[in-house]
Amino acid sequence: MQYRYRRLRSHPIFREAVAETRLSKDMFIYPCFVVPGKKVISPIAAMPGICRFSPDELVREAEKGMKLGINKILIFGTGEKKTRGAQASYSHGSVAATAIKSLKKYFGNELYIISDICLCAYTDHGHCGIVEHGIVHNDKSVDILAKMALSHARSGVDMVAPSDMMDGRVRAIRNILDNNGFENIPVMSYAAKFASAYYGPFREAASSAPQHGDRKTYQMDFRNGREAVKEALADEYEGADILMVKPALAYLDVIARLRRESLLPVACYNVSGEYSMVKAAARQGLVDERSIVMENMYAFARAGADIIISYHVKDLLEKKWL
Ligand code: PBG
Ligand code: ZN
Fold first, then answer.
1. How confident is the model at residue 233 (pLDDT cuts 50, 70, 90)?
2. Under CATH, to which class is 20-318 assigned?
3. Is 131 near ligand 1, meaning CB less than 6 Å away?
4. Could you point out which of 133, 223, 224, 305 has its C-alpha 20 to 30 Å from the C-alpha of 52?
């Protein structure tokens, strides 16, 4: 008979043997929102199961996560004072810096802490950079982003992840880290970050929606695939250690392309809107959550992602889907 894979797949044991893609919990990074205060746990309406935590509560949440096997988290500071110059982003006492210090003190090297570097939660207009004469000023923004990265490094962060999409920020961050004795802190660059409607729920979570205009001048046009390669290779050249594609589901081709064009590890960010859509559909009984989530995760890995950042990580481990 001309049977092909079906012969191999007909026994569950051998079906596993010929599976081309595997997932392991080491691939996953759990994104977390931190807010100022104490004993604060505030649920995000658009993202069922996801909350903002004050630093003390984030320590407790991380402890629960670590019991499940989550050992890498990505931190977003939110709820800070918003100013023209985004000063809170690099202040020693920022909520992100405070959370990093508490987590490090509590967990030491058992927990790997990555921080998101961007200004949109700290500017009064909500753009990812410093605005002058109505436009985002690339180079002034890069200076502040570098200061923010340094402040997090001084607080003990293990890796920084710039998500602003300014040009030259990877090099500026690499330089400031190197010049201050942090040459071992890697940079995970949001290299191909598209201007996307899938960030909607995140902007509620971080109250970081731009008050005027949109992010289309600095985030990428979703019609452009070649440009993603150009952006990513430029970041690699500037010293990025990991290249990230964001969002993930609608950009599997970009993940696959970067996997081919670069030799660096490739990460993908399964963003808030992608999470919320799955949750909403599952809650209405339209799809089976576990099956959908696993299909998505395998798709990221099959496309070539070495690292997956996803809000589903907790469910994945807690419910033993993996
Ligand atoms: C900040 C940032 C955003 C996300 C990660 N970092 C929002 C944005 O660019 O508007 C989105 C993450 C998500 O949607 O889960 N620049
Ligand atoms: Zn931003």
1. very high
2. alpha beta
3. no
4. 305
